[in-house]
From TrEMBL:
Gene3D superfamilies: 3.40.630.30. It comes from Curvibacter cyanobacteriorum. Residues 1-143 form the N-acetyltransferase domain. This is GNAT family N-acetyltransferase. The keyword Acyltransferase applies. Pfam families: Acetyltransf_1.
Amino acid sequence: MTLEWHCTDDGVNWDELSALYRAAPLGEKPPEHLQRVFSNSLFKCFVYDNAQLVAAGRALADGADCAYLCDIAVLPSHQGTGLGQQLVQKLVDLSAGHKKIILYAVPGKEPFYRRFGFRRMKTAMAIFEQPQQQVERGYLSED
């Protein structure tokens, strides 16, 4: 496995990235949406294996106070290889110097992120576009 890392969105095939999120599986993320959110993110990583996009992630960051890691995905064929750990560590390293680095995890995956120093927040709150769906998926509580 020869991995090539890119930390810029120059030359990204947004359709291929959209397919990666469907395969991961992290849901439907249209190419136009991905192009906008990655372009507006201070940090981004794309990982290629023999020219095939196999992993991606980004961090929204303001340069000093807060960085938010999101949209971290690894192609199923590359899951379990340590690539996800490398990707998260790279985004954490790029975000170093911010007073706080946050993310929200797929329910049940919290232990994976704990090894990077992430801890459960007691006061996190969110407004989602489809709140009932997020309750059903385990991201929101009903209270």
